[in-house]
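Notes from the 1:1 (GR / supervisor)

We went over the backlog. Supervisor wanted to see one worked example end to end before approving the batch request, so GR pasted a single chain during the call. The sequence is below; no edits were made to it. Supervisor asked that the structure be written out right there so they could see what the output format looks like.
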Amino acid sequence: MSLNTVSALDALTDALRSRILNGDFDPDEHLVEKSLADQYAVARHTLRIALQALESEGLLRREPRRGVFVASVEPEDVLDIFRARVALELEAVHVIVSRKLSLDAVREACRHLQAIPRDASWTEVINRDFAFHHALVHAAASPRLARTYASLQAETRLAMVRQKPLYATVTAVADEHGPIFDAVARGAEKEACALLRHHIEHSGQQLAAFIESRRRDDR
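Structure output shown during the call:
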């Protein structure tokens, strides 16, 4: 497998992150260092640094004397991640509305999401969905709010990889975001927050229940 021309470490980290978030590895899958180092033609030391970076993002976990495994998102993890998202995104809406900040980037992200083709890959759905919420938080023009939200990015995307079976079509995802944007654009903070809270909490509850049911089936 070839790497783009940036630093070998950054390219390797990006490549592995993309594979994890695209669902190329199963939850709890053991990542064999020698195999990965051979695939990417990098030194084991470089690979270990890349794996450590992904551990710090919550995408991998290391078990003593066993090695590195792809992180699995448990029901309680999903609820906690989405609870944190609610707090941050509702605050972003409050700041945007109260300060009458620009929604240009959010509007464009919403249009891009709503224009998603019916045959789009789930990865593309995740990218456009995440772009909308990312734009919403960044529209609050708060560097600290944005940094805090960014710290949830990898775990949020990892959880969203598991959401595919919960939607009948990819356009069903897009349909949930239009009313949220419309309410924010009208300055209807209470309505926007109610819609946003329901959207995030309902998604989190559905996903947590789905993961729990799969866990019971595997026993």
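Supervisor's comment: The chain has a mean pLDDT of 90.
Batch request approved.
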